[in-house]
Design a protein that fits this description.
Oligomer: single chain
Radius of gyration: 20 Å
Helix content: 40-55%
Order of helices and strands: EEEHEHEHEHEHEHEHHEHEHEHEHEHEHH
Number of helices: 15
Distance between the termini: 13 Å
Strand order of the largest sheet: 5-4-3-6-7-8-9
Shape: globular
Structural class: alpha/beta
Bound molecules: uridine-diphosphate-N-acetylglucosamine, uridine-5'-diphosphate
Strand content: 15-25%
């Protein structure tokens, strides 16, 4: 028998993984493999939050993920609509599967819905990427992080700072610093990406002589923020490759903003093409959480179009700079950014997934 939090685990562990959007498919890839290798039975539920092939199917194909056993169609909408549409389907799967734990990833509405549905049925929640905080409650993700961590039985943290954030909120039981599953994925896939991807040639850019941009945060897709960012982009001389998130495409159209024609825009690309593009860029401009870390792992300076970050270690090491949406600051930071002399290892050693699988299998506390 295994005891996790307040729950007792029988031999033959069964896990229900709840995923729903791009970064979660990526995070689940190394963990699914580690679970399988540890003999754990994993059943996956896709909430349907991301449904376009370039935000969903491409990752199942590329990362060779098993098709989800449950597929909901929650789709887009306001936060409440989207979250509410997910809950009954997740609850049904929880009741049908009676898993030993429900695994949730990151900080999205799918994470919140997965955790809520499980906790309400008294199934332990295991949170991958626990303890991250931006300390900005206007971000929808921050509220998700706070709630999910509060109701999780197992909290898998990527770094010491995340453990400290939880301790400051009085959460100390079930907390484990394991490293970052995204780093596991990155170490395995980035070398393959450089071999296989033709993205640089297709977009007409040369290694080290272009920037990569990603932009999708709610606050940055408002018309005023978009206009400021577009202004900055028009003042950047270097080629900028921009895989545009559909939210941003829609927001640009609604605001009547046309981007500078020199930008190399493309629909979102798969993990391998993005890894090839990001790892060979001179600089990355982003408001993504995951991309800030990947920039660091690639040794590519990052300029973050936000005023806060959960990934504070990348800022402290001097590889990442917060500029918000002020055009002058953006242009200046892009001009000034240079690689730093030191790049100590951050967010684990590439074995976070195995550690999580082991903890799920062997842990005893309560
Ligand atoms: C969501 C997460 C965010 C995460 C991001 C990863 C929340 C609150 N936000 O943001 O934390 O960083 O995923 O990419 O959970 N859309 C499409 N096709 C799709 C999906 C979305 O066109 O397949 C468009 C729709 O217009 C939709 C908008 O994008 O309204 C936003 O989608 P949504 O899933 O609500 O949030 P993201 O911005 O993707
Ligand atoms: N990514 C991708 N294709 C793209 C842009 C990003 O595969 O066109 C990957 C990127 O490598 C990273 C992840 O998507 O692993 C980050 O997801 P996103 O920025 O959507 O969400 P966040 O991390 O901000 O929650």
């Amino acid at each position: 028998m295994r005891v996790i939090g307040s729950a007792t685990f029988a031999p033959g562990l069964r896990i229900l993984s709840v995923v729903g959007n791009r970064p979660q498919f990526i995070k689940s890839a190394p963990l699914s493999l580690a679970l399988r290798n540890a003999g754990v039975e994993e059943v996956t539920l896709h909430t349907g939050q991301h449904y376009d092939p370039e935000l969903s199917a491409v990752f199942f194909d590329e990362l060779e993920l098993d098709p989800p056993a449950y597929r909901l169609e929650s789709g887009s909408g306001t936060h409440a609509e989207q979250t509410a549409r997910m809950l009954p389907g997740i609850e049904r799967a929880v009741l049908e599967e009676r898993p030993d734990a429900v695994l949730v990833y990151g900080d999205t509405n799918s994470t919140l819905a997965g955790a809520l549905a499980a906790a309400k049925q008294l199934v332990p929640v295991a949170h991958v990427e626990a303890g991250l905080r931006s300390f900005d409650r206007t971000m929808p993700e921050e509220l998700n992080r706070l709630v999910v961590d509060r109701i999780s039985a197992l909290l898998f943290c990527p770094a010491e700072g995340a453990v400290a954030n939880l301790a400051a909120e009085g959460i100390t039981v079930g907390v484990h610093q394991v490293g970052d599953v995204m780093y596991d994925a990155n170490l395995r896939l980035a070398p393959i990406a450089r071999e296989r991807s033709r993205a640089l040639a297709e977009l007409g850019v040369e290694p080290g002589r272009y920037l990569v941009l990603t932009l999708h945060r709610e606050a940055n897709t408002r018309a005023d923020a978009l206009a400021r960012i577009a202004d900055a982009l028009a003042r950047i001389e270097e080629p900028v490759v921009f895989p545009v998130h559909p939210r941003t495409t829609a927001a640009l159209a609604a605001a009547g903003i046309s981007l500078d024609s020199r930008l190399r825009t493309t629909p979102p690309v798969g993990y391998l093409d993005f890894a090839a593009l990001a790892s060979q860029a001179r600089l990355i401009l982003t408001d993504s959480g995951g991309v800030q870390k990947e920039a660091y792992w690639y040794g590519v300076p990052c300029v973050t179009l936000r005023t806060t970050s959960e990934w504070v270690e990348t800022l402290e090491k001097g590889w990442n700079r917060l500029v918000g949406t002020d055009p002058d600051l953006i242009v200046q930071a892009v001009r000034e950014a240079r690689p730093q002399a030191d790049r100590p290892v951050l967010y684990g050693d590439g074995h976070a997934s195995e550690r999580i699988a082991d903890l799920l299998c062997t842990m005893r506390h309560g």
